[in-house]
Amino acid sequence: xxxxxxxxxxxxxxxxxxxxxxxxxxxxxxxxxxxxxxxxxxxxxxxxxxxxxxxxxxxxxxxxxxxxxxxxxxxxxxxxxxxxxxxxxxxxxxxxxxxxxxxxxxxxxxxxxxxxxxxxxxxxxxxxxxxxxxxxxxxxxxxxxxxxxxxxxxxxxxxxxxxxxxxxxxxxxxxxxxxxxxxxxxxxxxxxxxxxxxxxxxxxxxxxxxxxxxxxxxxxxxxxxxxxxxxxxxxxxxxxxxxxxxxxxxxxxxxxxxxxxxxxxxxxxxxxxxxxxxxxxxxxxxxxxxxxxxxxxxxxxxxxxxxxxxxxxxxxxxxxxxxxxxxxxxxxxxx
Amino acid sequence: xxxxxxxxxxxxxxxxxxxxxxxxxxxxxxxxxxxxxxxxxxxxxxxxxxxxxxxxxxxxxxxxxxxxxxxxxxxxxxxxxxxxxxxxxxxxxxxxxxxxxxxxxxxxxxxxxxxxxxxxxxxxxxxxxxxxxxxxxxxxxxxxxxxxxxxxxxxxxxxxxxxxxxxxxxxxxxxxxxxxxxxxxxxxxxxxxxxxxxxxxxxxxxxxxxxxxxxxxxxxxxxxxxxxxxxxxxxxxxxxxxxxxxxxxxxxxxxxxxxxxxxxxxxxxxxxxxxxxxxxxxxxxxxxxxxxxxxxx
Lengths: 335, 297
Fold this sequence. Notes:
- Helices cover 78% and strands 0% of the residues of chain A.
- Chain A has helices spanning 2-29, 34-39, 45-55, 61-73, 87-122, 127-141, 144-158, 182-189, 192-229, 232-239, 244-281, 287-297, 300-328, 330-333.
- In chain A, helix 6 crosses helix 9 (192-229).
- The longest helix of chain A is centred in the middle third of the chain and has 38 residues, at 192-229.
- Chain B is mainly alpha-helical and 297 residues long.
- The relative contact order of chain B is 0.15.
- Chain B has helices at 3-29, 31-48, 50-53, 86-122, 124-138, 142-153, 157-184, 187-195, 199-235, 248-255, 264-291.
- At the A-B interface, helix 1, helix 6, helix 7, helix 11 and helix 12 of A face helix 5, helix 6, helix 9, helix 10 and helix 11 of B.
């Protein structure tokens, strides 16, 4: 087990290195010279040369790369020119918002998806199953941005019961930012009203982002449970006289969850892409929209470091998922 | 031709026909495949015959008739802010969407399959290098990658197709590599090699036809995500540069200001996207059931 983890961690290194090279080269190939973009109107030829020198852009590529790598390893991810702050600071300020959103979406997807998957699996062939399958198919076919727009229209404009954008209403926002997650900070400060308001703001974006994972989890759970229900050990458990509930919990659920765990890891990548769209529609101050703005504005420091950070997180989450998969599945643990 | 080779050919042909005929028969029975296939067929027909189906020129706007509500005799889906007929724009938009989807998936499948085949067949360092490359590409969230590529290459139909193709390449590379790795151990492959069938013939005549099934299923599903990704790029403002070009995603982004009064401007393009994606997903699901060897009786 330990060897497995170490092997996977070691595999991380070439991937991250390769990623850094890829992103580094990519940025250098983007149209537009960063120096003139930064200078804007003051882009005289002398100024451009000076800024280029200051940024190290006139040095040979491989020197620039080693500088960049050195900076990365010592925690310096550059300075954004859009906000004139360190990229790390910008990222850390916005990332909790995206975490809040992602966690909400995933919770929604799991809490609804797994039970629904089990129910449709156990009632195969009935209208419940067929209806569920149709719904999940529609769920994976709706583009996130359309769903977000329609939900926004339905619940924030037609029937204004939920807020249409932002993370919290200003009236409630008078507690200090500790973690930058509205819900957590509100709890820490003991502000019940703020907490409820933050939750209200999370509903629509959370459902929007979580619908596709919900549909996918439902389908995978269903397929997995169907497979497990046909296994001999389930039949043995029934033959032993165990009640349906016990069989479900002890045998079916645990074994059916393995593919679901793998899927959760893969979903994280999808969620980060979806977060860009959701955050744009709901004015959510997270990392997704930040990255998108950076790419369009050619702020190469953000793009470089931001994509690397996001990729690192994604790879890391997948590593955790793989490790827990090995932990849950004894066959892998002992191989 | 030697006796053994002729015999091999006969067996191969028999099995190949058996697989496809059986698959088509089962697809005809799968409701998902039929409904999905119908939707896709309608989509393709609408795209081909767009000029005959759309009542108006999608790019000509009549400002006097702007902002009209839907469900009238003149304008089935209403008109937008510039007076362009929404229905016509959706019909013509299908051309763009279908074109981008087909182009991007074709490129993605071709390049990905070649890479995967090379990795799966030669193994060793070729495999290691290609798979590390694939891992790296898969570690960047897809949409973000597409946004970066479009920003780099510029806005335009071909650029969008290339961006989406790049996202698809690692998926197909992995798929084909996996198929080939498991097929290598198959009895008939080992038998063919022992008879002396060369590497090229082995790959093309024996392994690839059996790897094609999952490839086609995945390609169909990739068409579905290509439609969504293209629309997403359009929604984010990275679609075709000419604002008069009807593209479903761009139509959605233009209209989100008007949700208060004219929700139909967003609703119809969105539903068009949902239905086409649903069609591809249903078809892909149906095909997967039909081609799944475990379900063959």
